[in-house]
Amino acid sequence: MSVRNATERDIPDLRSILLTGLLSDHVWKYCFPLGQGGAVQLVDDALRLWLDGKADDKNQWLVTVSDDLETEKPVSMAVWSLPGSLEDTESGDGGDFVAFQSSLSHAADTARLTTADETAANTPTPTKHEVSSAARLAAVAEAVQVTTRGGSGPLLSRYGPQVVLVLTATHPSHRFRGHARRLAAHGLALASRRRAAVSALAGPMGYIFLSGLRFSDCGLATVAVPGERDELDLKVMVQPAPPGRRSLSRQLMGLFGAGAGESGSERGSPAPPVGERRPSAWEERKRSGVNARKMSAV
Description:
Largest sheet: 7 strands, mixed
CATH topology of the largest domain: Aminopeptidase
Structural class: alpha+beta
CATH architecture of the largest domain: 3-Layer(aba) Sandwich
Strand content: 15-25%
Distance between the termini: 86 Å
Helix content: 40-55%
Number of domains: 2
CATH class of the largest domain: Alpha Beta
Order of helices and strands: EHHHEEHHEHEHEEHH
Number of strands: 7
Radius of gyration: 28 Å
Shape: elongated
């Protein structure tokens, strides 16, 4: 298995991965409760958006794939949102269909605009089911934006800059072979080099998958469409950024140096002038003994 960046030539395989690998997904079922009506066009629009790479002026998309050894074609994929302001300091499979920031809202808007154009061209109007799916997709996008806000949301703000795991999906015939875990490890290594945390929103299966990767549960995000009774609860997950070298050295100094500097007769003693050596504990005891004998002689 090898991990590489996806290209436009992979779109047919990626489409198949999404449409077959997410059928049992909790979020997918919420967005398409009666089947995949309208999903094919939505998936194609989302793939083109992600492969274009640029989300906005501050973020960029990255699609990585894991190839099958025999066919050398993608069988698993992951989508990431990378904060463009961060520079690289060095040169069960999850299956939650949760798109972060603008991806779902962009796809939903594209679907609505396409529908409007088709309606204007005297083509069939969208069904009630298609309208409901678009509304739920937009609701998921809004909930995610409120939760993440580029790492400044109330649940994630203390973790600093973040790389967002948008989704992972694996073709059903290639599950449980480590493809999604390999893709996740690749993204975690990328975030580590950028000194960034990794965040994600997850349904039940995604929660199990991310927990196995040592993500922490930060709380709950609820998705709801006005006027509908059905709601979708998603877990907000995060893996903090690794400490930098300076931060780690400070922690070690605080752990070992502070205690040693306050032990014995040195506790509270001022630092010696520059160029002078601090007397050892033996010298301090010897000096104290000499002073005591002088006092007794007096």
